[in-house]
Amino acid sequence: MEMTLYYMPGSRAERVRWTLEELDLDYRTVPIDLFKGEGQRAEYLAIHPMGQLPALVIDGEVMIESGAIVQWLVESVPGSELAPAPDQPARRDFDQWMYFAVTSLEDPAWEMMLHGRILPEEQAVSAIVPFAEKRYTKALGVLENAVKDQDYLVDSKFSAADIMVGYILAWFPAFLTSYPGLQAYLDRLKLRPAYPHPPAE
Ligand SMILES: N[C@@H](CCC(=O)N[C@@H](CS)C(=O)NCC(=O)O)C(=O)O
Predict the structure, then answer these.
(1) What angle do CA 102, 130, 11 make, to 5 degrees?
(2) Deepest of 88, 138, 179, 188, by most Cβ within 10 A of its Cβ?
(3) Ligand 1 atom having least distance to the Cα of 11
(4) One domain for residues 170 and 97
């Protein structure tokens, strides 16, 4: 299988890179500098119709959406131990945290990022930030409880759900000071050789 990852450090393509590394798969990367507008060039829009990262090309077929790619990878690679089998009870937790990562956690975090850090003043709506922070901290509280008695989110075993969640937690490290369990969880994830170190840190 030939795989090409369109990638920029710190972007959501990190989730895919992290997964590919954990699975010890061969792949090549093509750098796309979003800050230079490379995502919106015609050649890249022909690959990813939104001009976003990541895109993974698998034997000539394009796949987009970081969560879907991560899930596809961990389910397609024979012997991968990064997702419980569909008939295992732990699978329910796995699916739950995979979705939680891209909705309840990522959605407010992205609003904080966009309106608090990325958008220029004339486009940012700063009033969005406090409510997004409230929703984000609520999600952190739920995760704090989930790792209270275990090292990882699913059955105390490292899985793709930790990749999906762990990538977002690193966007706002200062928020973890009130969540010692989550801070310890993130510190554990950081010890993994494939862990990404986003520029936001
Ligand atoms: N839901 C998508 C979001 C992709 C996304 O927003 N990627 C950002 C980089 S982290 C991007 O490409 N932004 C540039 C843009 O939206 O034009 C995914 O998880 O793959």
Answers:
(1) 35
(2) 179
(3) 10
(4) yes
What are the tens digits of pLDDT across the range 46-99?
999 999 999 999 999 999 999 999 999 999 998 899 999 999 999 999 999 999
Nearest CA residue ID for atom 11, ligand 1: 52
Q: Which domain holds residue 69?
A: 3-76
Q: Is the Cβ atom of 71 under 6 angstroms away from ligand 1?
A: no
Are residues 94 and 64 located together in one domain of the fold?
Answer: no
Q: Which residue CA neighbors atom 20 of ligand 1 most closely?
A: 65
Distance 52 CA to ligand 1 centre (A): 4
Q: What does the pLDDT look like over 115-169, one tens digit per residue?
A: 999 999 999 999 999 999 999 999 999 999 999 999 999 999 999 999 999 999 9
Answer yes or no: is the C-beta of 52 below 6 A from any ligand 1 atom.
yes
Query: Does residue 165 sit in helix, strand or coil?
Result: helix
Q: Given the structure tokens 């001009």, which residue do they identify?
A: 51
Does residue 198 line the site of ligand 1, with CB under 6 A?
Answer: no
